[in-house]
Amino acid sequence: MQPGEFDAKAFLKTLTQRPGIYKMLDEKGEIIYIGKAKNLKNRVSSYFRTQNASPKQQAMVAKVAGIEVTVTHTEGEALLLESQLIKRHKPRYNISLRDDKSYPYVFISSFHDFPQLTFHRGAKKRRGKYFGPYPSASAVKETLKLLQKIFPVRQCEDSYYSARSRPCLQHQIERCTAPCVGLVIKEQYANDVENTILFLEGQGGLLIDRLVVKMEAAAAQLEFEQAAAYRDQIARLRAVLEKHCVEGEKGDVDILACAAKNGAACVQVFFIRNGQHLGNRQFFPKVGDENQPEEILQAFIAQYYLDKTVPHELIVSHALPESALVAEVLAEQAKHAVAIANNVRGERMKWLQMAITNADSALNARLADRQGLQGRFFSLQQELGCDITPTRLECFDISHTQGEQTVASCVVFDREGPVKSDYRRFNIDGINAGDDYAAIHQAVFRRFSRLKNGEHPAPDILLIDGGKGQVAEAEKALAELEINDVMIVGVAKGPDRKAGMEKIILVGNKQPLDVTPGASALLLIQQIRDEAHRFAITGHRQRRGKVNKQSVLEDIAGLGPKRRQVLLKQFGGLQGVSSAGVDALASIDGISRQLAQRIYDTFHHQDGH
Question: Which end of the chain has fewer beta carbons closer than 10 Å to its terminal beta carbon, N or C?
């Protein structure tokens, strides 16, 4: 269907006035915009009143070849559905959130005699208390490090804990009371766990009061060493609270600030849980030139909190266009009231201003990087003699160990940098060990077969980490698929593999390309090549580790999948199993002494070769 064939007048006559969402499609049937409406007929009609349309709206409407609508019961349901669909499809003309990783927590178990304090990410399946979410893994690790200095609760893995026969280094430096070898009684350990929970729940003041009482009691009974220990603990606690506590806050609050200019935006989020500042994180949603900070914030909030815990209050830098509606939808999802405020005073204003300053600073840095990246793309056009400046690059690399467990990586860059959602890995099978040419051929063929199926857009330039042989195989793979509009460039390692000394191989050229010395295109090529190499090595290690874990244990008679899993879990991996003695192996449920001996003999026999 061609854009000109869409009969807007006829379509609008069929539209209902009920709430719902609408999807605008181009001639290929791809979604280019998703919107929600309280009154579908009025909202969709507004796009075709050209006298008030913005340039962006005119450009979008010119591409419309069809519109699909979904009617909902309420406008709130429409907002929720709109956010879900934008997040899934990321249409060209919508504001969409690109960074959507799961967030880590601090976890305290409740199923151990001596509970474990640890890092957690993913589904909350284990019994215990979860504190967070924290903005990053480093924020959790910093918190755990601080807690270890104040409360000597174990942070080791269960496999390590259960295998101890003597105290570890953490006990020697007074950061664990060594419950693994019985050096602390349950009551004393439970007290340390309770204090840790009080701290994480934002009850630092109450905790200090309790410790002061204990310190004074110890001093009164002339237990000066114990009193000094309490005094030091109180001092460490006060220092931490001074740094992390937000004055006047007791509950859960997120502070969100948006900065937008030159077709880019940054949303800065400060996380406050139980009155403590856990850290902050920045996001760069996809926006257009005409999007204002308030609409960017609203779109961000609607998409970001879809599958996350919603705090009781959001403090925002700009008043949202539909603040009451967004609050209503969030409250329904969270099962508690949610307030959205932008007029705040005192300490809250200081934190909001800090978030605004951080958003501005991060956006300026991003724009500077993007400008530098734009220059590199332009330089690449100049060096390779392209008719237009490329917008999308893909790079392939191969990783293996002596030809085994071969993995190919494909990484993608656009003019804003890495597009990690489009990265892919390919496990290469059915080739001779170490045949990098065949590996490149297979990876490129598989990747571009998916392109022909419409799974991803075509790159302007395909970079191959390798020389003429690898480039020739990539060329063959594309020819087999009848793809002839992608430029193939080989990146051969220079003398001694020194950065900046790479040789650039072009199809049909007998000699490497004569690149201008110091051209920024080389920096771009190095960047994407190094990223492909990193991604390939990571995938190869994962594949190799999986094979190594399985292959040795799978050869042992009587050791089925469930027992293999138990063994690996109990001993913390294959290395732990291989170093365990027969008695330790036999102590595991389901492992008889005869089977333990077979497992031991397997590794002992291998070690002897």
Answer: C
pLDDT at 308: 84
Two tokens at 41?
Answer: 């007929």
What would the two tokens of residue 530 be? 């190094």
Q: DSSP assignment of 169-196, as one string?
A: HHHHTTS---GGGT-S-HHHHHHHHHHH
Cα–chain center distance at 286:
16
What are the residue ranges in the chain where pLDDT is below 50? 1-4, 549, 606-609
> Can you list the alpha helix ranges (DSSP code H) found in 481-519?
none
Sheet of 31-37, strands arranged across: 31-37, 20-25, 66-71
Burial class (CB in 10 A: 0-12, 13-18, 19+), 134: buried
Distance in angstroms (rounded) separating the CA atoms of residues 265 and 269: 13
Q: Outline where DSSP puts E strands in 52-139.
A: 66-71, 105-109, 117-120, 128-131
Residue with tokens 């490090």: 145
pLDDT of residue 22: 95
Q: Return the biggest CA–CA distance within the chain.
A: 93
Three-state SS at 431: coil
For position 81, what pLDDT does the model report?
93
Residue 135, CA atoms < 13 Å, CB-side half-sphere: 18
Tens digit of each residue's pLDDT (9 = 90 or more) over 346-361? 889 999 999 999 999 9
Query: In this structure, are residues 61 and 47 in contact, taking their beta carbons and an 8 Å threshold?
Result: yes
What is the number of other CB atoms lying within 10 angstroms of the CB of residue 157?
A: 13
Whether 277 and 294 have beta carbons less than 8 Å apart is answered as no
Nearest to 1 by CA among 27, 25, 26: 27
Burial class (CB in 10 A: 0-12, 13-18, 19+), 554: exposed
Of the candidates 448, 503, 492, the residue with the CA atom closest to the CA atom of residue 470: 492
Predicted pLDDT at 607: 39
| C-alpha span between 302 and 318 (Å, rounded) | 15
The pLDDT score that the predictor gives to residue 178 is 92
In this structure, how many other beta carbons lie within 10 angstroms of the beta carbon of residue 12?
16
Integer CA distances (angstroms), 420 to 334, 399, 450, 532, in order: 30, 19, 17, 11
User: Residue 235: which residues within 8 A CB-CB, separation 6 or more?
Assistant: none
Chain centroid to CA 61: how far?
34
Count CB atoms within 10 A of the CB of residue 206.
12
In contact, 115 and 155? CB cutoff 8 Å: no
Q: Which helix (H) or strand (E) holds 390?
A: none
